[in-house]
Amino acid sequence: GNSVTQMEGPVTLSEEAFLTINCTYTATGYPSLFWYVQYPGEGLQLLLKATKADDKGSNKGFEATYRKETTSFHLEKGSVQVSDSAVYFCALPNTGRRALTFGSGTRLQVQP
Amino acid sequence: GAGVSQSPSNKVTEKGKDVELRCDPISGHTALYWYRQSLGQGLEFLIYFQGNSAPDKSGLPSDRFSAERTGGSVSTLTIQRTQQEDSAVYLCASSLVEGSSSYEQYFGPGTRLTVT
After folding, report:
1. Min distance A34 CA to chain B CA atoms (Å)
2. Is A97 close to B56, i.e. CB distance below 8 A?
3. Do B103 and A93 touch (CB under 8 A)?
4. Are strands B75-79 and B19-24 parallel, antiparallel or unpaired?
């Protein structure tokens, strides 16, 4: 079935640093791709999505481009803030069902 | 508008007891999902409801787990004879499915279950 692989964390950055969290996927066809974020003590929130190849999803300064050539959906932000400290999950629909398959999550810690 | 709500937010139970976890999806969302988030297993799909169709139970880890959805809205996840390995955060999500190809899901805050 469809699957995602995320880079291991934690990722520790200083404020205003550039962020990349890698995500690669294996899928049948070209399903929608998602990044979810989980802030400390809170539930999962959709951060951004891309519904077809070459689409770029963006929100709150974060971006990710759906690249079918490299089967990747890397998350990027040009200048992180302390408030971005959270766990980030890459996800896609599982084959044959509408549930999502999530990556293992990457914890981001931003230091002032 | 109101998001997905779950209750209780925390539940501590003794091994062998039954527990019920509740989920109220976003009004108008036809699809409802249960997931489990644990340290060793990450985020796992448990069960999916869509309208009046038979639920997809393929993610339930054992027959001690069951779920129902009444009136196409509220859902209850029941765990019978709880075991320590059931300790996790149980997440509920809902989505609009008909006419939607994006599978965008909205999550509740979760119920943290601790089995002692």
Report:
1. 8
2. yes
3. yes
4. antiparallel
Cα separation of B90 and B110, whole Å?
5
Phi-psi region of B49 (alpha: psi -120 to 50; beta: other; left: phi over 0): beta
B43 and A34: CB-CB below 8 Å?
Answer: no
In whole angstroms, what is the distance from residue A62 CA to residue A22 CA? Answer: 13
What is the tens place of the pLDDT at every residue in B64-90?
Answer: 999 999 887 999 999 999 999 999 999
Confidence (pLDDT) at B103: 66
